[in-house]
Design brief:
The complex is a heterodimer of chains A (101) and B (186).
Chain A: H1 5-25, H2 29-53, H3 58-88
Chain B: H1 5-24, H2 28-48, H3 52-77, H4 91-114, H5 126-131, H6 135-143, H7 148-185
The chains are: A mainly alpha (101), B mainly alpha (186).
Chain lengths: 101, 186
């Protein structure tokens, strides 16, 4: 029994679109940030799969930089969540409507 | 690819099941702990794909650092009230986003299965990596030779993120202390 690269890549896209759906349908901003992490992880696995398939190390190097960007993104994102909670006393994205009113 | 199919299906099934739980669980703490299990499954798949250093970094950085940050913020905000508010979102938006996600997923699966990558093969065959001293050594040598400029720019990015996070999270307190100082002056 052999695992085709297409199957691994399909698994990556499944995880990516689960995260995509999470960003769109959830309203808790913490869960939206977690869904973004899921999408970044799916892309990382795609890079590693192509790195293995094409015998090229550039994929695994890209994963390092993506992990760094993800760490920076979650640090700044969670700081924004704290600032939002201080202002609105809520983590619901529907409460952000200052410009609409 | 020569990877063990049983391990791959186990890790892939665990990752898909727990990532669905991340999206569908009411409680953000439950979502966070499901996400930890997803990260561990991904680390297993990286190890299957011979990316050992990436697998270890996945556990150290994602499951170690980022998830601790998430859980710390959840505890700090005390946002324990279940906020699974699918019932209150627009049903058209919900159904539409699921439909678009399923359609795009089908398109991706079709593309990955019918149009395999035709890029030229690189120099790092598994035998060469083995001869050069293993995955970690090859990546370290590449990181400090060919990829030295992005590696140095990464440190600038991290510094910017630290300063930005502190500035954003501290902004309210500085305004409060300023107004407090004015009150005391008047």
């Amino acid at each position: 029994m052999q695992v085709e690269p297409g199957l691994v890549l399909s698994f990556c896209s499944a995880i990516f679109f689960i995260g995509f759906t999470g960003v769109l349908i959830r309203r808790n901003i913490l869960v939206i940030l977690m869904s973004i992490e899921l999408m970044l992880n799916a892309v990382n696995l795609t890079f590693v799969t192509f790195s293995k398939q094409l015998h090229h190390m550039g994929g695994q190097m890209s994963v390092f930089f993506i992990i760094t960007v993800a760490a920076a993104e979650s640090a700044v994102g969670l700081a924004l969540v704290i600032a939002m909670f201080r202002t609105l006393r809520s983590v619901d994205t529907d409460e952000i409507r200052l410009l609409r009113e | 690819m020569d990877i063990n199919p049983y391990f791959f299906y186990t890790f892939a099934g665990t990752a898909i099941a727990f990532s669905l739980l991340v999206v569908l669980k009411k409680n953000p703490v439950a979502s966070a702990f499901s996400l930890v299990l997803v990260f561990f499954s991904f680390a297993g798949i990286y190890a299957l794909l011979d990316a050992h250093l990436v697998a270890v970094l996945q556990i150290l950085i994602y499951a170690g650092a980022i998830m601790v940050l998430f859980i710390f913020v959840i505890m700090l905000l005390n946002a324990d009230a279940p906020s699974f508010d699918l019932g209150r979102t627009h049903i058209a938006l919900r159904l539409g986003s699921v439909f678009v996600a399923v359609c795009l997923f089908g398109l991706f699966v079709w593309a990955f299965h019918n149009h395999p990558s035709a890029a030229p093969l690189g120099p790092f065959t598994p035998e060469k990596i083995e001869a050069a001293g293993g995955n970690t050594r090859v990546i370290s040598e590449l990181m400090f030779s060919e990829y030295i400029l992005p590696f140095e720019l990464t440190s600038v990015l991290l510094l910017t993120a630290i300063v930005g996070a502190v500035a954003i999270a501290k902004r309210n307190t500085s305004i409060q202390s300023q107004s407090g100082g004015q009150k005391r002056a008047s």
